[in-house]
Amino acid sequence: MLGETNELKNRYLHVKCKDVKQDIREQKQDIEETKQDIEIPNELSSKTKQHIRDLFLEFGYERFFGRSDVQNIIGITASPSSALLKRMLELDLIYPMKGKGKVKYLFRK
């Protein structure tokens, strides 16, 4: 290149952009934290309440979820996740979505 003898090794070819990284760190994001919560009946066990809270924190009112999502988030098998969803339907905390393939649910506002 231009009659120069530069080593073309990866470690010498990194581009450093300290100014851009520093600018990004200095900018504060204007995000307003609003805590949304769901009303969970007192008659449930503390473990079941925690499972419902975990699901609500993950999906909120806007995202739908199915049994496999419950299994992945909470870390339980198919049978207990089905029982949890059935209990949540009985308590009217969730409702089934139509037109989303297999049964999917949304939290009720």
What portion of residues belong to β-strands? 5-15%
CATH class of the domain at 46-107: Mainly Alpha
Roughly what is the average pLDDT, rounded to an integer?
80
Overall shape: elongated
Q: What would you report as the Rg, rounded to the nearest angstrom? A: 24 Å
- Strand arrangement, major sheet: 1-2
Name of the CATH homologous superfamily of the domain at 46-107: Winged helix-like DNA-binding domain superfamily/Winged helix DNA-binding domain
Structural class: mainly alpha
Give helix and strand order, one letter per element, not per position.
HHHHEE
**Terminal Cα separation, in Å?**
65 Å
The CATH topology label of the domain at 46-107 is: Arc Repressor Mutant, subunit A
CATH level-two architecture of the domain at 46-107: Orthogonal Bundle
Number of strands: 2
Description:
The protein is mainly alpha-helical. It has a domain of about 60 residues: Winged helix-like DNA-binding domain superfamily/Winged helix DNA-binding domain (Arc Repressor Mutant, subunit A, Orthogonal Bundle), CATH 1.10.10. It is built from four helices and two strands; from the N terminus they run ααααββ. The chain has a two-stranded antiparallel ribbon. Helix 3 packs across helix 4. It is elongated. About 10% of the residues are buried. The mean pLDDT is about 80.
